Amino acid sequence: MARERGMIEPFVDQQVRQTDAQGRRVISYGVSSYGYDMRVAPEFKIFTNVLSAIVDPKAFDSRSFVEFGGEVCIVPPNSFALARSVEYFRIPRDVVTVTVGKSTYARCGIITNVTPFEPEWEGFVTLEISNTTPLPAKIYANEGIAQVLFFRGEEPPEVSYKDKRGKYQGQHGVTLPKI
Predict the structure, then answer these.
(1) I need a surface site. Which of 26, 113, 160, 178 has the fewest CB within 10 A?
(2) CA atoms of 83 and 129, how far apart (whole Å)
(3) How far is CA 95 from the centre of its chain?
(4) For the chain, give me the number of helices (H) and strands (E)?
(5) φ/ψ of residue 128, rounded to 5
(6) In what helix (H) or strand (E) does residue 104 lie, and over which residues does it extend?
(7) Catalytic amino acids?
């Protein structure tokens, strides 16, 4: 489906486990046994509380984030950052996904949260990366961050994300909460 329908672009048809310029292993990405390991792009919004703001999903204050672009993002202790995937996804009408964080990050106390990609949703994925530790944490851009698992239904849903004109349809960049 990735090749025939442009479901994942750019699509890496094997699991990449190379080394970087410093000779360190890259956190793997690309096709996995039953899913796809997506990468995190070098665009981040790092949560900060300099304004003593209250987090309100109905009236989110974008000034609660500091924008950062770069190959390594430092997430403060007990905080989080928003990022986006390198890949653009186009989910077929008869498919839904569940995304889980990669074990390399999870074993460091770094949790990646992503909601399911509903049938006929498309866009870059907004990732929430939580640092649950009392120490700063590094996130490496253009490397694996989470694994997407695909589930195909026996029949398509009556109403897809596209049909209901979902508010996150076709999102580009790191997208903040919308009501």
Answers:
(1) 178
(2) 8
(3) 18
(4) 2, 11
(5) -105, 120
(6) helix 103-106
(7) 128
